[in-house]
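quick one, 97 residues, struct below
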Amino acid sequence: MGALVEVNCETDFVARTDDFQHLVHEIAMQVASMNPRVVSRDDLTEGEASEAGEVALLDQPYIRDNHRTIRDLIQETIAKTGENIRVNRFIRFELGQ
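---
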């Protein structure tokens, strides 16, 4: 199983920091383990909006601390780095699927 995640920030300086690289690693682990369908609730149809906590990556509980969401994790890293950070897209690969 594997996950490929595109996470954007404003400068390459921030992209090389340990905080940013740790964030991207944790998001990839979240995608691999929780199998979200979309990045945010904005990507869901009106009928699917009630399932946002299960299928939208940013609204899922963080796998290492279920009192925080992935959105919270990103906001904490934004506060540390001082730059806007955004998950643009992801894909999850599973052998045999």
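The chain has a mean pLDDT of 91.
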